[in-house]
Specification:
single chain; alpha+beta; OB fold (Dihydrolipoamide Acetyltransferase, E2P); Chloramphenicol Acetyltransferase; 2 domains; seven-stranded mixed β-sheet; five-stranded antiparallel β-sheet; 6 helices
Length: 413
């Protein structure tokens, strides 16, 4: 009898995603699954996504362990019917032309992602029969998998065929001073590290600092907080006021709402205002983007910021909500920070760091008074404009924050 099973490959999710980490298997070998049932949680460099099964059947094989990386086109699982035998041959890596078409994170995965193979395939010198985990073990041990004598069914190379691990490949859990922990840099953390390094290498970053007397802003928020909660069901933070003030200041100083096209050596000044708000999560940093922020009321901004922050922290954010920013904000004040040197979210040309609001003595009308002060740190790309432009932007931003009534003008309530 000619028995076949379905090899389900990790699909191309688009957005430049080339690999993911298997965070959690939602099924085990022997389980029966339905079409579109989620079988695994995979962490990409942008979000954690649930991968649905393209077919109904019995789980015959899971090709990656939790914590392992899987590349686009590699087999995730093998699904078949009762009595089917899981295919043992692993085809060569897919070429760019063979790669499946991009799909959305949600919704049905196209049938093109499914490859049907049979156990009658023959092993060749270019196509050694071995599971991805075994191939990885061979690389880790420095073993030539093509020279290994297979002992598994249908000529499959098993991990036991590779021999003992070579001691030089073993990574010690200590150094000359004592014991250490080694934590893999994966997913969001790895992407954050790469983006930060890219920004430092490709921008001429300079940071200017200011402070704003936000005593009146604090009072306004206190007055609006209760009715906002009662009428809109949203907790009113300072961020909607800050976003509104930034948009107003960007309209006065449009050079900061820009990016540099290095290839064409052009400064691209954006005529729309998409404000990214950095959100700290356990795995790193995500920057959800508020689209068309200049067209939204204070109340709408409050609702959207709360919604984006929640989905980001739950790792359920839509990938589209992480793209298209023109200017970014990072609020380290929530962790007690004051001033800092934020790193530009390249290819943008500026980012504003927000410190914690604190009591400080200021001279007001010739008298020293206790006031609420907000520290501000603006990092900008000096290639795009000079420090005078950045200083004027900060000056107007401070003025708007110190006169919050202006922020409510022309806004729907």
């Amino acid at each position: 009898m000619f028995m076949m099973a379905t090899e389900f490959r990790f699909p191309d999710l688009g957005e430049g995603i080339a690999e993911g980490e298997v965070k959690k298997w939602l099924v085990k070998v022997g389980d029966t699954v339905t079409k579109d049932q989620s079988i695994a949680e995979v962490e990409t460099d942008k979000a954690v996504v649930e991968i649905p099964s393209p077919v109904a059947g019995k789980v015959l094989r899971l090709d990656h362990q939790e914590g392992e990386l899987v590349k686009v086109g590699e087999v995730l699982a093998v699904i078949g019917e009762e009595g089917d035998v899981a295919p043992t041959n692993v085809p060569p890596p897919m070429t760019e032309e063979e790669r499946p078409a991009s799909v959305s994170v949600v919704g049905e995965l196209p049938r093109e992602e499914v490859v049907v193979t049979s156990v009658t395939q023959k092993r060749t010198s270019r196509d050694v029969s071995a599971m991805p985990a075994v191939r990885k073990a061979a690389r880790d041990r420095g073993a030539d998998i093509t020279a290994v004598t297979p002992s598994g069914p249908s000529g499959q190379v098993l991990e036991s065929d590779l021999g003992a691990k070579r001691s030089p490949r073993t990574v010690p859990k200590f150094d000359i001073y004592g014991y250490v922990d080694r934590v893999p840099i994966r997913g969001i953390r790895r992407t954050t590290a790469k983006r930060m390094l890219e920004s430092q290498q490709r921008t001429a970053a300079v940071t200017s600092m200011e402070q704003a007397d936000v005593t009146r802003l604090v009072g306004m928020r206190e007055r609006l907080k209760a009715p906002m909660k009662e009428q809109k069901g949203v907790n009113l933070t300072y961020m909607p006021f800050i976003v509104t003030a930034i948009v107003r200041a960007l309209k006065l100083h449009p050079l900061l709402n820009s990016m540099i096209d290095d290839e064409r050596e052009e400064l691209i000044i954006k005529k729309y205002y998409n404000i990214g708000v950095a959100v700290a999560i356990d795995e790193g940093l995500m920057v959800p983007v508020i689209k068309a922020a200049d067209q939204k009321s204070l109340w709408e901004l409050a609702e959207e910021i709360a919604s984006l922050a929640k989905t980001a922290q739950e790792r359920k954010i839509d990938l589209a909500d992480l793209k298209g920013g023109t200017f970014s904000i990072t609020n380290y004040g929530v962790f007690g920070g004051t001033y800092g040197t934020p790193i530009i979210n390249y290819p943008e040309t500026a980012i504003l760091g927000i410190g914690r609001i604190m009591d400080a003595p200021l001279v007001v009308d010739g008298t020293i008074k206790a006031r609420k002060v907000l520290p501000l740190s603006l990092t900008f790309d000096h290639r795009a404009y000079d420090g005078a432009v950045a200083a004027k932007f900060l000056r107007d931003l401070v003025r708007l924050l110190e006169n919050p009534e202006e922020l409510l003008l022309n806004m729907d309530g």
